[in-house]
Amino acid sequence: MEKAQFGVIGLGVMGRNLALNIERNGFPVAVYNRTESTTEDFVKGPAKDTRISAAYSYDAFVNMLEKPRRIMVMVKAGPAVDAVIEQLRPHLDPGDILIDGGNSFFEDTERREKALAEAGIHFIGAGVSGGEEGALWGPSIMPGGPQAAWQFIAAIFEAASAKAEDGDPCVAYLGPGGAGHYVKMVHNGIEYGDMQLIAEVYDLLHRGLGLSHAELADLFTDWNNGPLSSYLIEITADILEKKDEDTGKPILDVILDEAQQKGTGKWTSQNALDLGAPVHTINAAVSSRIISSMKDERVVASDLITGPVPEYKGDPNQLIAAAKEALYASKIISYAQGFRLLQLASEEYGYGLDLKTVARIWRAGCIIRAALLDDIMRAYERDPELNNLLLDDHFRSLVVKRQGAMRYLIGEAMRMGLPIYAMSAALGYFDAFRTRRLPANLTQAQRDYFGAHTYRRLDKEGSFHTEWGE
User: Fold this and answer.
1) CA-CA distance, 395 to 69, in Å (whole number)?
2) Please, what sign has the CA dihedral across residues 376, 381, 383, 385?
3) Would you name the residues annotated as active-site residues?
4) % of the chain at pLDDT higher than 90
5) How far apart are CA 417 and CA 421, in angstroms?
6) Which pLDDT band holds residue 1 (cuts at 50, 70, 90)?
7) Cβ distance 217 to 243 under 8 Å?
């Protein structure tokens, strides 16, 4: 019997689609799922007449695989991953490769890799982005872990991954330990920011300017043909066009305004605080999701707290043009924050991340794929040590040119009482970053006044304290 070259544990949407993808690209696959009926449905349905073999025990599963065994775990992040590892570990041999393809926290990946390395088992943390369609037809894959294991999975991942317009596979070995899952975490943080920026522009043009969903769909379709071209802009246009089958209303009119989250955006914010990395836009997006979940409180507040009427009085074309330019500038600023965080994390954790490579593998397959990423690649080609995208001549000029649009749009949103938190945060980051002297001198004086925390001076070296009461 032909041995499978790859194994998948967990046949949820992502797991089964990845199995189909890998088999379609020439690699026989063995699959296992804790619920046997799920396995049966898969092999008799989508996997029928393919080189996908089903196992109903871990012992049978590992015996279906050629050595070194290459096994991808596609179960919910957290305790479920540890449970699979614990049950599977006795059946593995030194040199086997276990891959976690879920949205695991990078510190969990570090822990698991160290524990499995003691038994000679390689553990790869691989972020996978692209949703169910990406998993089936080509996701962006972000693997990290022992480099010695990469050679055994590279051909499979390269075949199954998305391909950019130039044909490059959207996968690359990123670094040791939890590097892959760290990059995926930041990818998701940037995704949070992108989604919130788009939502704010939608809200401003819909409630403030009164554009219909159909008009907005045409607008986003047009924007997707220019610098804003991206997956999220594309699907926003599709969403705006969609009608609810039951009521005939635009689908957005019947969807509850409570944004859910799985935690990766929050992890990005929390880790950025640990590293001292300012990620204003991502933080604002996380907070915006949190306040959206306070639906009952917001309903009460809406009846008790008054504010401006959201009605724009100016030239509609001016607001639409400003929205387009402001959204693009905000998007650049958000990416700048995310890539700077990756750089700082790479230094802190010893990942050795190549930021050009990160941009390259995000160009197709993943949720934040965008035309902008080609420009980001070129920025890191020009200067691999670039500290911030806003210091690159190309990106600096793009944002400086559009800062007026950001200021105008944010000002109009505030006059209308429309929340525009993420874009305001992006502009706040931009203004703080370009400021030679911030009011932190006062903050330091306050800290020294009430806590004798000392401060540094502009004209002398060392730490100083003032006796403020004298």
Assistant:
1) 45
2) positive
3) 184, 191
4) 98
5) 12
6) low
7) no
Yes or no: say if 31 and 39 are a contact pair by the CB < 8 Å rule. Answer: yes
Nearest residue to 308 (alpha-carbon basis) of 419, 205, 406, 418? 418
What is the end-to-end Cα distance of the chain in Å, rounded? 89
User: Looking at the predicted structure, is the pLDDT value of residue 209 above 80?
Assistant: yes
With helix as H, strand as E and coil as C, how does the chain read? CCCECEEEECCCHHHHHHHHHHHHCCCCEEEECCCHHHHHHHHHCCCCCCCEEECCCHHHHHHCECCCCEEEECCCCCHHHHHHHHHHHHHCCCCCEEEECCCCCHHHHHHHHHHHHCCCCEEEEEEEECHHHHHHHCCEEEEECCHHHHHHHHHHHHHHCCECCCCCECECCCCCCCHHHHHHHHHHHHHHHHHHHHHHHHHHHHHHCCCCHHHHHHHHHHHCCCCCCEHHHHHHHHHHHCECCCCCCEHHHCCCCCCCCCCHHHHHHHHHHHHCCCCHHHHHHHHHHHHHCCHHHHHHHHHHCCCCCCCCCCCHHHHHHHHHHHHHHHHHHHHHHHHHHHHHHHHHHCCCCCHHHHHHHCCCCCCCCECHHHHHHHHHHHCCCCCCHHHCHHHHHHHHHHHHHHHHHHHHHHHCCCCCHHHHHHHHHHHHHCCCCCCHHHHHHHHHHHHCCCECCCCCCCCECCCCCC
- Bridge pairing between strands 122-129 and 140-144: antiparallel
CA neighbor of 191 nearest in space, from 63, 279, 91, 79: 279
Name beta bridge partners: 123: 98
Over residues 273-328, the pLDDT tens digits come to 999 999 999 999 999 999 999 999 999 999 999 999 999 999 999 999 999 999 99
Structure tokens at 326: 């402001």
Whole-number pLDDT of residue 324: 98
Q: Tell me the pLDDT tens digit for each residue of 9-39.
A: 999 999 999 999 999 999 999 999 999 999 9
